[in-house]
Specification:
The protein is about 60% helix and about 5% strand. With about 1250 residues, it is mainly alpha-helical. Strand 4 (about 210-215) and strand 5 form a beta hairpin.
Length: about 1250
């Protein structure tokens, strides 16, 4: 041990924190033991053996085995396919190219290091090339990876003529068919982060796992349906096509590659390898250097070995090259510290890259390096704002920092306009007083402070509104905000941030021109300064600008200045003509420049919100005295400015004084409406107090009707400023006051107002204030399919969310009334609704407290009459089968009704409710025995349900899987009938046997027949994990599914039939998610009736009563190859109208193989829908299409243009709040935020790579 310590000290490498770890590094241990003045050879060998034994013991205790080592030739000879893993700079690309080069030499009959291997045609493919070409392809459907291999063997290289490329493509295709290809996929980790790798992993695994088929009709290759028996190929590694994949270890990008493919990790350079590298490098230097004297071959290695920190870097091949280069440049010296090494390396890189540029700026390399350090520190120390939602770079902030904080004479020289103004105060005054010049100067040079007021206002509003909620009201949002702020004390962290914003806000500061804030320069500076000195107008620039617009010698940045100046000077005709002649890349860059400028100016507009009311008043007074001043109506004039303030993120405007000053009634009520919005949007402290005050003003003014209509129109404004709500909307003003004051007014709206919107609103308000009533039902049912998220959800609350199982009843039959209950039942039975609407109506009866036996008896008699009058109709009027709560009086009344000899179907209905009541513990064991007695003497042969499942839906599917996967012969035509008979005999109970079951057994049956499993889809997928699907099994499942769907009716199906169809849909859907190509093989067969399958699945999607069945029908529709895109448009619309099924869109959309280009226009039309939720869902679909490269460049451009246009629009401020549409997903965002995120993803950007593209002059 003493000798080891002495060796470490001599190397200046003692560190108590790392000493034991260093011993485990073979290369460093070898350096220490090579000191023969301390260790003999035998001692060095003994220490090595002890360290190796220690490492082996550690591995064994950790249940690991020593990894086997291979030379690359050995690995290639042993494994058919393998993955090469390594850290950055470890040599992955070098090894890949080495393999490709040696195999190419072997094919050419030249000497090589793979001479013992079978010849394979080598193809080297950087995997990002496949992903990247998808981004630019104009094909309607993306190429498979297999297709890409043989259609793009030259990767579009210009070294080959088109004929040569075609010949090479044919050669690769035939070689693939013959199994004579070696394909190396380079850089799996280099696929951009925003790209979904799931499809790519599927493609790679298909190449590894499956054979290749040739389609004679299309002349293309496809993956075989048959799996290869052995894919890691240690027995016959040279048989068939071979695939090698390289990837960095970091990120685990390789995890999804088939687990049986060997992973080979590149080791760090050994001591001997590093010595050999250093000797080779020194030999090269000695051979090429003319000035220096020859150096020893081991000198570089010895200098590296003297420094442990540098030595540990040198075991990486790429870093070893950097160290050697610096060693040469510093004339045989190495820095002592790593940080010095890094600085020298970066400095040399900068010197080489920017030498010409910095000379032009009058900077030395040292000065430039110093400036870059300051900018880097600024970037890391600040949370910088992006220039706009479109331009996600903080260029504006960086330019401001550069012009103000970098104290270098060269910077002042660059900003000539700013320097000149600082020496001429009169010019500054002239600019500030001349609005025409001020506009141009601000656009070209800046000259204003940007506090990003619009963003701080929005953030403060959101924080303060959340903090104003009670703990109960915060509950739905707390999960969302915990991710953004702090899990331990979310509210405290948000309060600290709100206080910080409030103390540093500049919301009321007047935006003033300040020459010290100028941070840009223009090539127009000399001309502009000359005109300013002569006090000439900026329009004198026009003639010169018009000539420059066609000057081909201008740089891109100078051209942009010309176009920008022409826009400010309002020469729009010339701009519109000239912009069409420019290249697409210029138009895009110029659009970004305009977007940046607009976004920056929003700060000033937002700060004007506090003074805009006074400005309106001065305009109004001027117009009152001189009506000829403007042809624009004053109200419209104000709307334009108010919309501008709102879109710029300013504070709501207090227009009460304006309203009181108006002579015109319309203007007065519009300004009152704006004032009420101001009071309700967080601009005041107590929201509920403000509502109460406004309600008083409504009531006492007697002008409720006049104020109501403009008040409703500003609903979107309130949403924009109040993104967080517990349960308060604009119209809730009328529910906070005593009913005797407000409800008569609302009642008058309902009975007398002929405006459909107001009538529905009044029905909703009255129902919320008291309870649902007969004449409001039709209006409330209409709202269930309304596109307005808030109104739809409130109507849903009136009835009840079908997914909610209430623990306490909230309605009373005696209060609601017989007529109202009867009206709802009539709507359920007589009018046709889609299942999603019918579900809400049915759920109304979940928690009606059957507290009055007399009401129940009267209702029962009315139902009997209605049922008798509609006997000819197939529609059954169910009444007793929805009861989830009861009491002793009503239960006894139910039993008396069941004992009447009218019809046995009454007993069957009550059986459903009885089973449900047992599940909710609403009746006792004795109650069940009383009902079982009635059931035992009832003729159950007339019941619609003859069987009840004794197992859950998951167990039913497991039973089907066990039966089908155990059979090898499916040719028997009676197979399905036999299987269904076996299913009935083994996992169902007959209805006549139910009366003999005890209470616990009935409770279990209720769980099996009336409730769906949690995580249903994932559970089935887990069942299939260890099962090998075949084309035969897929075919038999689809045939059985078609048979059951064919016999399925839109209404009146038995519960047994519904569950069988649901289970089959779920099972086939899971099989498709696992192996979708088998499904397509079956459904694309010439003997398969695809039209019939589509119609049946559409019927399931629209009419099946169980939501898993509807969701899985969508997945099966999505996975089929269609010729009519309208099928998928209709399916998507049906799916997006139903919250509980939306989760299936995430699974189904990626499976769509029909080119989305054909229905992009239809989806974009749907984005104009009033529903923010629906828009949000469609954005997810469009993003999925774009990221998976399923749309062409033209369609992607359509989407991007739409999103760019919508971002920042008033309606995009609407909250997308799942708390109001799906109680299981508490989540809040805004459409603007989602539009922006979709834009970023679809544009194909991640972080700051968006503007890495350079524009050449």
């Amino acid at each position: 041990m003493k000798k080891l310590n002495r060796a470490i000290i001599e190397r200046n490498a003692f560190s108590p924190e790392t000493i034991y770890r260093d011993f485990m590094i073979d290369q460093w241990l070898n350096v220490l033991l090579s000191n023969r003045t301390i260790f003999t050879e035998d001692e060095a060998t003994a220490i090595k053996n002890k360290i190796n034994q220690l490492k082996q013991n550690i591995l064994e205790k950790s249940h690991f085995k020593e990894a086997k080592q291979y030379q690359i030739q050995q690995a290639y000879n042993e494994f058919k396919h393998f993955v090469i893993l390594g850290h950055p700079g470890s040599g992955k690309t070098t090894i890949s190219k080495w393999l490709a080069m040696n195999m190419a030499k072997q094919c050419l009959g030249e000497a090589n290091l793979l001479s013992d291997c079978t010849e394979k045609f080598p193809i080297f493919i950087p995997i990002w090339k496949y992903v990247d070409q998808m981004k630019h392809t104009q094909n309607e459907q993306k190429k498979s990876l297999l297709q890409f291999i043989y259609e793009n063997p030259t990767l579009n290289s210009t070294f080959f003529t088109p004929d040569e490329q075609n010949d090479l493509s044919s050669l690769v295709l035939s070689s693939l068919m013959q199994g004579n290809v070696l394909i190396i996929f380079e850089g799996l980790d280099e696929v951009p982060a925003h790209i979904d790798r799931s499809d790519l992993m599927k493609e790679i695994n298909a190449l590894l796992e499956r054979g290749i088929d040739y389609d004679m009709n299309t002349g293309k290759l496809s993956y075989s349906i048959y799996e290869q028996k052995e894919i890691h190929g240690t027995k016959f590694p040279n048989l068939g096509n071979r695939f090698i994949i390289t990837s960095r270890i970091e990120g685990n990008y390789f995890e999804d590659i088939n687990f049986s493919i060997p992973r080979l990790t590149i080791e760090n350079m050994s001591n001997d390898a590093l010595k050999l590298f250093c000797r080779s490098y020194m030999k090269c230097i000695n051979d090429t250097s003319m000035k220096r004297e020859k150096r020893g071959s081991d000198q570089l290695y010895e200098d590296i070995a003297q420094n442990k920190d540098i030595f540990q870097l040198a075991i990486n091949p790429q870093l070893a090259s950097v160290i050697a280069a610096i060693y040469n440049q510093l004339e045989d010296k190495l820095p002592k510290k790593r940080i010095d090494l890094y600085e020298i390396a970066i400095e040399k890189m900068i010197e080489r890259l920017v030498h010409l540029s910095i000379d032009d700026l009058g900077l030395t390399v040292t000065m430039f390096w110093s400036i870059l350090q300051e900018i880097a520190d600024f970037l890391h120390s600040k949370n910088l704002h992006h220039d706009s939602p479109i331009w996600n770079w903080p260029i504006d902030a960086l330019l401001r920092f550069y012009s103000k904080e970098i104290v270098v004479d060269a910077v002042a020289t660059q900003l000539k306009f700013k320097t000149t103004l600082n020496h001429d105060p009169r010019m500054i005054v002239y600019i500030a007083q001349n609005s025409d010049w001020l506009r141009l100067i601000l656009a070209l040079y800046g000259g204003y402070e940007n506090y990003h007021s619009q963003e701080s206002i929005s953030e403060y509003m959101e924080l303060s509104q959340f903090l104003a909620l009670s703990d109960i009201e915060r509950a739905p949002f707390i999960f969302y905000y915990q991710e953004l702020w702090d899990r331990d004390d979310t509210a405290y962290s948000m309060a600290v941030r709100a206080e910080k914003i409030s103390s540093s806000k500049h919301w009321n500061d007047q935006p003033l021109f300040d020459q010290d804030k100028i941070y840009k320069e223009s090539f127009l500076t000399n001309q502009i300064l000359e005109l300013l000195r002569k006090k000439k107008p900026p329009t004198d620039l026009l003639e010169g600008l018009r000539k420059k617009i066609s000057d081909e010698k201008l740089s891109v940045s100078d051209e942009m200045d010309v176009f920008l100046a022409l826009i400010v000077l309002e020469d729009f005709d010339l701009i519109n003509t000239a912009i069409k002649t420019k290249a697409e890349i210029f138009r895009k860059s110029f659009t970004n420049r305009i977007e940046q400028l607009i976004y920056v100016l929003k700060d000033h507009i937002a700060r004007c919100s506090s003074s805009i009311a006074d400005y309106f008043m001065s305009i109004y007074n001027n117009l009152t005295t001189n009506e000829l001043l403007s042809t624009l109506n004053f109200s419209d004039y104000c709307k334009i400015y108010l919309a501008l303030v709102a879109n710029s993120g300013g504070l709501p405007v207090d227009t009460k004084s304006l309203a009181e000053a108006m002579d015109n009634d319309e203007n007065r009520w519009n300004f009152y409406a704006e004032y009420y919005a101001f009071k309700l949007t967080g601009a005041t402290d107590d929201f509920r107090y403000s509502i109460a005050v406004i309600a008083d003003e409504f009531h006492t003014s007697g002008k409720v009707d006049q104020i109501l209509e403009p008040f409703l129109r500003i609903n979107d404004v309130v949403q924009m400023y109040q993104p967080i709500r517990a349960y308060t909307w604009v119209t809730d003003t009328f529910t906070f006051k005593p009913s005797n004051e407000v409800l008569p007014t609302v009642q008058r709206w309902f009975t007398s107002n002929h405006t459909h919107q107001i009538k529905k609103l009044a029905a909703l308000l009255l129902a919320e204030a008291k309870h649902v009533f007969e004449s409001a039902i039709d209006h409330l049912i209409d709202l269930l399919s309304n596109d307005n998220d808030q109104m739809r959800y409130r109507a849903q609350r009136i009835f009840q969310h079908p997914e909610r199982n209430p623990s306490e009843p909230s309605k009373r039959a005696s209060v609601i009334g017989e007529k109202t209950l009867m009206k709802i039942l009539e709507n359920i039975s007589i009018r046709e609704y889609l299942p999603r609407i019918r579900a809400y109506l049915n759920s109304f009866f979940y928690d009606v407290c059957w507290d009055d036996p007399q009401v129940f008896q009267n209702l029962y008699e009315s139902i009997t009459k209605l049922r008798e009058s509609s006997l000819h109709d197939e529609t059954k009027l169910f009444f007793l089968n929805r009861i989830k709560f009861t009491n002793n009086h009503t239960w006894n009344a139910l039993l008396r009704a069941a004992e009447s000899p009218l019809h046995p179907s009454y007993v069957e209905e009550l059986l459903f409710s009885t089973m449900t009541l047992t599940h909710h513990d609403q009746i006792t064991d004795d109650n069940w025995l009383d009902f079982a007695r009635i059931l035992s003497i009832t003729d159950t042969s007339q019941f619609k349900e003859q069987f009840y499942f004794t197992r859950t839906d998951v167990d039913i599917i497991r039973f089907i899987i066990d039966q089908i996967f155990a059979v090898t012969d499916f040719t028997d035509e009676t197979y399905f009938a036999i299987l269904e008979s076996k299913l009935i005999s083994e996992i169902t109970v007959k209805v006549e046997e139910l009366s003999q079951k005890n209470y616990v057994e009935i409770k279990h049956l209720a769980h099996c027949n009336f409730f769906a499993a949690i995580n249903y889809n994932q559970t089935i997928l887990n069942m299939l994990n260890n099962i090998s699907l075949t084309i035969v099994v897929m075919d038999i499942l689809i045939r059985w599914l078609i048979q059951k769907m064919t016999s399925f009716k839109d209404i009146g199906n038995s519960m047994f039939s519904c569950m069988i169809v649901d289970c089959l849909l779920s099972l086939v859907s899971a099989c498709v998610q696992k192996e979708d190509y088998l499904y397509r093989k079956t459904t694309n067969s010439s003997t398969f009736n695809k039209v019939q399958m589509i119609k049946l699945l559409e019927r399931m999607l629209n009419y099946h009563p169980y939501f898993p069945a509807r969701g899985n029908a969508f997945i099966l529709l999505a996975a089929m190859d269609h010729s009519n895109h309208q099928v998928m448009i209709n399916a998507m619309n049906a799916l997006l109208d139903e919250n509980v099924v939306k989760e299936y869109s995430v699974i189904g959309v990626p499976l769509i193989h029909l080119s989305p280009n054909e229905f992009i226009d239809d989806l974009l039309k749907s984005l104009k829908n009033e529903s923010a939720i629906k828009t949000y869902e469609i954005l997810k679909i469009l993003t999925e299409f774009a990221l998976n490269e399923k749309i062409d460049a033209h369609s992607k451009s359509k989407i991007i243009n739409y999103l760019a246009k919508e971002i920042g629009q008033l309606k995009s401020k609407k909250p997308v709040n799942y708390y109001y549409t799906d109680i299981r997903i508490p989540f809040t965002t805004t459409l603007e935020n989602e539009l922006y995120k979709a834009w970023i993803k679809i544009q194909g950007l991640s972080g700051k790579t968006q503007y890495s593209l350079s524009v050449k002059d």
